[in-house]
Write a structure and sequence with these properties.
By secondary structure, the chain is mainly alpha-helical. 64% of the residues lie in helices and 4% in strands. A two-stranded antiparallel sheet has the order 1-2. The longest helix is centred in the middle third of the chain and has 24 residues, at 40-63.
Length: 148
């Protein structure tokens, strides 16, 4: 099992995406396409929330027996008021938190990648699956924020 490709992709994103977001007009970043849809800043905030929750996952799967970890993403975004936070702060938080997660991922022993955790549905997945899925999920949303 190996997560090096996902780690490399995560680091690449951290070095290339911030300038693209910061070059986007704030009115575009804060526009909500519909009352029940997230703005681009809220999508970026969701990625910060995802980083926070996956940080727990990446550690707890290694130290606990099959932990169940999930959160209510709509509540987190709603309560965080991401449209009211400066774009530069959101971008810096997203970038630095993900560089931190990349460093944590590099330190995961290969034997721990086969350990399991579960989400809200109770379905078990390996730590490797969760890390790869984390980066895939991030890219899905980054493509909604900027073109690259």
């Amino acid at each position: 099992m190996d997560i090096n490709a996902s780690i490399d992709r995560l680091i690449w994103l951290c070095h290339h995406i911030p300038a693209l977001i910061e070059a986007t007009p704030v009115t575009e970043l804060e526009n909500k396409p519909a009352p029940d849809k997230w703005s681009k800043k809220e999508l970026l905030g969701h990625l910060i929330d995802s980083a926070a929750n996956n940080h727990q996952r990446f550690i707890r799967i290694q130290s606990e027996h099959e932990p169940v970890i999930f959160y209510n993403q709509n509540e987190w975004v709603g309560l965080s008021k991401y449209n009211e936070i400066a774009t530069e702060q959101l971008v810096a938080t997203w970038k630095n938190y993900n560089l931190h997660l990349a460093a944590i991922a590099k330190a995961i022993p290969a034997s721990n990648l086969a350990r399991n955790g579960a989400g809200r549905d109770g379905q078990k997945h390996t730590l490797k699956w969760y890390f790869d899925d984390y980066v895939d999920h991030m890219e899905h949303h980054l493509h909604q924020i900027v073109a690259y």
